[in-house]
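To whoever picks this up:

The parser on our side crashed when reading a file containing two proteins. I've narrowed it down to the boundary between the first structure block and the second sequence. Both blocks are reproduced below exactly, byte for byte. First block:
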Amino acid sequence: MKYDVEEVIHLNDLSFIRLCNEKYGINKGIYNTIDSWFYKHGIKNILDRRRYILSFLEFLMKRLKTNTRIKFGHGGLSVRLQEYFFEQVQQPV
């Protein structure tokens, strides 16, 4: 399913969470954890945070070479968030 990122980030909260569940297989708890992690790392604007969330989930799909549900083992979500953030977002100039 292709989508327009700029359109998707403006969905209401429930619709955005449902899209993440349908496309990436993450439940509301995982979504909230990801959202909170980005917020705690300085991404305060909700639209920017949603862009990062979608980018992170696409990053995982490519990294895990899957097009089905994303699964995390114990502590795996934190590790994946750190990998994404420090490889993709915090690249040195």
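<<boundary where parser fails>>
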Amino acid sequence: MKHILVVDDDPHLRDVVVYALQREGHGVTAVHDGRAALDALLGPSCKHFDLVVLDILMPELDGLEVCRRLRASQRAHLPVVFLSSRDEEIDKVLGLEMGGDDYVTKPFSPRELAARVKAVLRRADLVTASAAQPPADAPKPLRVGPVLLDVARHEVRCLDVALKLTVTEFGLLAALMERPGTVLSRAQLMERAYAYDNLITERTIDTHVKRVRKKFRDAGHDPIETVHGVGYKLRDV
């Protein structure tokens, strides 16, 4: 059973989300605003969560700021699914660029939300399963130039600087590092990095690649190259 934190200031919508997730067998904790969310996630009495369903538009402390603080914390890998009444493409991109793993617009079908949560949790489980393997069976770390990716430890280092990647970003980088110098189309990245998750779109891939590249640039080296009209590749030097 997974434990999910639901954050929404609308009590009716909060109840709908909680019910939809509980029907899938998840344990659910619900809070009504961003400050309560940060207390549950990062406060002195914080609990273990496997995923956060996070409303964006909330008074005082919105979901984007909650996500930003979460990504800067020791729980930076925790998956986040945003909820928002804004369905413009720019709003979705902003949510993903802030560190969200997925973005669901209101009004939404409870089944759709449950499916998207399931897809994100599945990606997180793939990483967890790799990390839980006995050391003798663990996949060897991947190294390409100054970039080191350790699947078993869910760690990425560049020029000896540790990078904090979300579960989604980690899967994408691993797919590229497994085939350095090979161009992967967006469709191939969706297939290889996200285990045939049909809820991922090509625009989502672009947004996650942009976030990964920014983190590398902050570390002093960008190993990813855009091949216009085709996709992306990892430089093999």
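After patching the parser it read the second block fine. The chain has a mean pLDDT of 87. Residues 116 and 131 are 23 Å apart (CA to CA).
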